[in-house]
Predict the structure.
Amino acid sequence: MAPINAISHWVWGDDAARHDGVDVMHTLLGYTIHHASATFWALIYEHVTRSRPTGNALQLYADAAVIAALASYVDYHLTPRRLRPGYEMRLSRLSLLVVYAAFAYGLARQKLARRRTHALASSAPDQLNR
């Protein structure tokens, strides 16, 4: 839980990164901040990809990679140290790369899954009329 707890350094200072266990003060706050940030970037991704063709998965993954890279750049180059995510206090650079890559994958994957579900739901009435 330490990387999630580290996010709460926004409120509790750098000591938050030293908390390994689960507690309301660090874990819940860290998760809430992280979730809000991920939602912010997901909304940007949704806006950017709203008009993309349904079948172009490669483009959706590329867009997601750009959004994740932008999020990383903003998090670690434009944001004051006090408001950075905090993961960097507990994770290696390689682990941070994996975190942002997983975020990109999740952005694109959920969009593709939603589009498939919508396509199936849209075709269901046609099959009932046959």
Summary: The longest helix spans residues 93-128. The chain has five helices and no strands. The chain has a mean pLDDT of 89. The helical segments are 2-7, 9-12, 24-49, 57-78, 93-128.
